[in-house]
Amino acid sequence: MTDGSYVYISSQTTQVPTLGSFTWQNSDVDDEEAYEGFRSVIEVVNPNPDWEKITDIIDLISDTTRAKFNRSMKGDQRFNDLAISVYEAYEVFAAETWRYEVITDRLTVTRPTLAALWVNPTGNPPPDIPRCGFRNDLCHDVASKTTVAASVTAACLLIIVSGLLLSIKFVHARAYDTANQSWWIIDSEKFGRLEGRKRTGNPSFRPSLMPVMQGNPTTCSVSGETFWIVRVE
């Protein structure tokens, strides 16, 4: 809370003795935490009114109010000037709850010798609106959107990886089953062209399909001739 991310504003209507001082004094106890906290405090104080000049205005306000709005007040009664100031302040700065009208967008220094010191790593003033908002209701939307995006991305990656693994497993299983078959069938057309014509010289030779054991030579007899057929992987 004292790292410069927050600024504490002490607002006073007038600096009267009853309110005391909210600034850090050099003669105060050497409390580092309090000192860091006071470095983030901005004291906003209106100038002390000239009571001799303002008395006539206060009396005029009191008389006008009694005459137009409240005839039950006695002649020696008048409104508290601080109460009037508070009402006017709320009329100007708080038209609606938690909504304020911008009077000025420029920060000024009241004393030429006093420079603005913002206690944070960048030296810049903190933002007008906290990252999560004044009611801490902005971070939830950001977090939910981030969570949904991360979940969708993770689900897509999981589906892609699972599909690749299943495809690889299917190809390997199919190759394994094909390589480990105990029997296979020779195409009669190829057998007739390559073996029949060469061995028998009969162009119309069409031997029937024949099972062959993998890795073991198998013999067959055609027209008295013996053929050795071996499956080669």
Write the layout of secondary structure elements.
Layout: E1 8-12, H1 32-39, E2 41-45, H2 51-68, H3 81-93, H4 139-179, E3 183-185, H5 188-200, E4 211-213, E5 218-222, E6 225-229
Parallel strand pairs: 1-2
Antiparallel strand pairs: 3-4, 5-6
Summary tags:
about 230 residues; two-stranded parallel ribbon; two-stranded antiparallel ribbon; alpha+beta; single chain; 6 strands
Verbal overview:
The model is unreliable at 190-215 (pLDDT under 50). This protein has 233 residues and is an alpha+beta fold. The longest helix is centred in the last third of the chain and has 41 residues, at 139-179. The protein is elongated, with a radius of gyration of 48 Å. It folds into three domains: 8-130, no CATH class; 131-180; 183-229, no CATH class. It has a two-stranded parallel ribbon with strand order 1-2. It has helices at 32-39, 51-68, 81-93, 139-179, 188-200; strands at 8-12, 41-45, 183-185, 211-213, 218-222, 225-229. The chain crosses the membrane at residues 148-168. InterPro entries: Peripla_BP_I (IPR028082). This is Receptor ligand binding region domain-containing protein. Keywords: Membrane, Transmembrane, Transmembrane helix. It comes from Ramazzottius varieornatus (Water bear).
